[in-house]
Amino acid sequence: MIKNFQKSYLAKLAVYLSCCLLGFGLTILSNPLFFPDGFAQALMPKQTNNNQVLIAQNQLPSPAKISNSTRLECNKTIKGRLSTSDFRFQGRRFQKYLLNGQKDQLIRVSLVGGSATQGRADTLQANPLLINPVLVLYTPNGQIVEQQPKQANVIDAVIRTKLPTNGTYSVLVTSATPGTVGRFSLTYQQLKSDGTNASVCPAS
Q1: Which of 97, 116, 158, 165 has an alpha carbon 20 to 30 Å from 175's alpha carbon atom?
Q2: Do residues 134 and 89 make contact, with C-beta atoms less than 8 angstroms apart?
Q3: Could you tell me if residue 104 is left (phi over 0), alpha (psi between -120 and 50 degrees) or otherwise beta?
Q4: CB atoms closer than 10 angstroms to residue 66
Q5: Is the pTM of this model over 0.85?
């Protein structure tokens, strides 16, 4: 009977000590006196926001302010280069492209540049890739439809959306990193309404 009592007592003691250690550990992690600011938060899983953007709206120019533009043709790829002579706003360079759209038309605009990892070696070239490329689509009256990508350090940005109205849309090309210039590829496609990626460009 004494042995059974000892086993029961030891089991309860072990549970009690485990709870105490767990509580003490959580207290340490959440107490700024034990660790520098932000250390505990760094250990916690980070939440992602599907609505986040790389460039805030107040850091983007109105398309109307950019006088130079190039018209996009369906299923055609433009080999471009963002340079120091392009329109400058809030430390970033911008190029403007135009496309004609109709309400409920499904389109895809793809921008391909390079990542920061590629860029470290690529900057040795005379004509490096555009690092952290960003694509912004505007309605005919200058309202933002979509900005892509949602995360930094990716080589491409793709906007795939249904147009809200008829008219001429503006597409801005820039970089999430202020002051960055470089070459890129830009492709515009009209897609089938069933959501497939098959292009349905009108006959020229």
Answers
A1: 165
A2: no
A3: left
A4: 16
A5: no
Going by their DSSP bridges, the two strands 92-101 and 144-148 should be labelled as unpaired
C-beta of residue 155 within 8 angstroms of C-beta of residue 112: yes
Residue 122 CA to residue 114 CA, distance in Å, equals 9
List the chain pLDDT tens, one digit each, 204 residues: 555 555 565 666 565 656 555 555 544 444 444 434 333 333 333 333 445 788 999 999 999 999 999 999 999 999 999 999 999 999 999 999 999 999 999 999 999 998 665 544 444 456 789 999 999 999 999 999 999 999 888 899 999 999 999 999 999 999 999 999 999 999 999 998 776 666 777 765
Which residue has 């959501």 as its token pair?
195
Q: Where in the chain is the domain with CATH 2.60.120.380?
A: 57-190
Q: HEC states along 24-91?
A: HHHHHHHCCCCCCCCHHHHHCCCCCCCCCCCCCHHHCCCHHHCCCCEECCECEEEEEEECCCCEEECC
Top-level class of domain 57-190: mainly beta
| 151 neighbors 158 (Cβ within 8 angstroms) | no
